[in-house]
Queue: 2 jobs
Job 1
Amino acid sequence: MIVLMEIAVLIFDNVNALDVAGPCEVLSKIPGTIIKYVSKETGPKLTDIGIKFTADYTLERIKEPEILLVPGGHGIESVADDSSVLNWINQKHNTSTWTASVCTGAVLLGMAGILKGLDATTHWMRLPSLNDFGAKPQKKRVVIDGKVITSAGVSAGIDMALYLTKLIAGETTAKAIQLALEYDPAPPFNAGSPDKAPKEILQLVMKKAAQRL
Amino acid sequence: MIVLMEIAVLIFDNVNALDVAGPCEVLSKIPGTIIKYVSKETGPKLTDIGIKFTADYTLERIKEPEILLVPGGHGIESVADDSSVLNWINQKHNTSTWTASVCTGAVLLGMAGILKGLDATTHWMRLPSLNDFGAKPQKKRVVIDGKVITSAGVSAGIDMALYLTKLIAGETTAKAIQLALEYDPAPPFNAGSPDKAPKEILQLVMKKAAQRL
């Protein structure tokens, strides 16, 4: 099945690199998709892993993408203060076929007024904050409500993108991409969620996060 | 535990974006690590997902990094023809504490003469080719032989980096990073390895790969 579809991915300084690369690794493999990396200003943006990602498009150059993808990361704090970016998210959502977020990208969707009344998820540490935007926070890895698909923290964007691929292009394409990316995860520890991690690990991560604030 | 450690990551045009972002998302969270993105020439490199990654360092500027990380992707074909890059890999390996690869990055390690007599893995489609370099191919997600740690296709770099984090900084740090990245994978399908994927999906992926050649 061939799909012709434009995907606009918002990037910004201190975006989380895996929030972007995880889902885009999946979505870029759907035949016929084109991904455009967008920011308020074009040029290199520093990511959390110290590598710079280049934005090739300004907000104005993006018309009506079928998919809007909003990643997260510590950089959302500066974006959250910028009404021009939040308005852009809202406008692109109005005409999108699918609007997706990874990790704390959901906070930006919320600030753009998109999550009112919707089931949604985000990084486990920020989940309660979705209430501030009228959303109904769900302790799930991927949540689909209407055309809005949100995912939990960082690595959850890969799972989200496979669900989205199934919706866009069918299960055969989604499975073929999963196999091509050898996505047969085998983490060495069972510590990837607050319910599964040992209590002392949970406390350590929350303490470190508190120190950042 | 605080570690002071330099990590050199080789990048190049048509590098696989998730091969880089997956492990670096983990390794960059180890306290005291610094990651340097290195290429034959500095500047932006186009990745397979259409975004450009910037290399800030030339090969010459990297002295004796504790960790050498070599990702894969279709771009390895051009690197494989460049003896200056292969020599650099070999030299940095001589003084490294750990030498790691993701996906077809193992092919570059092999061409640099590093895998002779070692157990190693790579993307399932290229696994037999490791024999060409005197390696002993292992159908495993992560293989550690001495100081060389290789991983299977693309997404396996995340698992590899968690093993490596345990070796470098201990299990508590590795688990804390896993929780911070919410790496509690839940793929919607069980199709991520050639053994698990339905036969028709396997044939589809192999047919597409053959068309690329």
Job 2
Amino acid sequence: MATEKAVVLLSGGLDSATALAIARAEGYHCYALSIDYGQRHNAELQAAKRVADAGNVVEHKVLRLDLRGIGGSALTDQDIDVPRHPAIGIPVTYVPARNTIFLSLALGWAEVLCAWDIFLGANAVDYSGYPDCRPEFVRAFEQLANLATRAAVEQRGRFRILTPLMQMSKAEIIRTGSKLGVDYSLTVSCYAADERGLACGVCDSCRLRARGFHEAEISDPTPYRC
Amino acid sequence: MATEKAVVLLSGGLDSATALAIARAEGYHCYALSIDYGQRHNAELQAAKRVADAGNVVEHKVLRLDLRGIGGSALTDQDIDVPRHPAIGIPVTYVPARNTIFLSLALGWAEVLCAWDIFLGANAVDYSGYPDCRPEFVRAFEQLANLATRAAVEQRGRFRILTPLMQMSKAEIIRTGSKLGVDYSLTVSCYAADERGLACGVCDSCRLRARGFHEAEISDPTPYRC
């Protein structure tokens, strides 16, 4: 049982809410980090606040970094529509370098907090095919973190990027979180959620989520628009 | 001679101004990226604008990301003084994970621009000992970039982090830039520059810079406060 600090990247979606619950169950003192990056689905950030409150985190920090200045994704550029059908290859909802950027910010905060462990709700089973959700990406970031920082150079610790969901199906994630008491009605996964947090039901993220609840045989609490 | 696009991280200091001049001399179409991270020495950003204008960049983007929310450095926390004497070990002017964060943002923009090359003015000779200026850090980031991105997975290119100053002394950097026409009076290196861009003359960065001009036998155009 850990009694250490951990930084948990918290988007407000189903996966990161589960990762937070796992970190808490393992005994970590959790510091949740959300990024207000100009995402189309801003309801996600409201969800992150609800999840952080329900998860008894020590602190929930929201950093503002407007990635609309970079664009290149349906999530940060209003001129690119969120697809209503599965894509061939990596979909346009991919945000360039997003997890690299988010993990970098988590690393900076972890260093200030003297925390060595960073939780990321990445999953490489029921996912959208994003390259920065794969185990080889996570391992490469971990290696980088231990070269990049004063803490790693001057102290004896090593940073770890913990991805407890990596090899789980969406149904397994939902079962795990449900056992740990995660209230999934607080979370928002939809790429095109409206300001009330109501989900579209047709985007890639909605479909993966709905299928997960169905396969887990757990009632789906997601509020849909229609 | 390259005719490709490159993203150049431009702080407004002496090193990044030289890296930009080298990229231009190699024929790159340069896209300069500066980060307004709440740095104490905001005069740096004004310098970055001047350097970008003088360097004929295609575009100069300034992204706002307030790292004061993370703190942990004399450059982002007003409660930590900029030292007036050399430090033992890595000094308090180290900003947690700064180059990791900045390279991540450069990578995101490079991906959108279809640029494969990113210039970073890192130097491991006359420097403050920051871990994220070392060659092994740069190589690790390059490896990460080629796992993290859709461009690297779906296309045949590879991202490169180019650090032409890495093995140069400060005097060599200044001689190189001077030959390429860099106007160093436009740049600000001081960690404690005032709002007019006047340098303190005593911080680590000022001392390295002054010694560089002296050793290069080039007249130092730095405006000092006293």
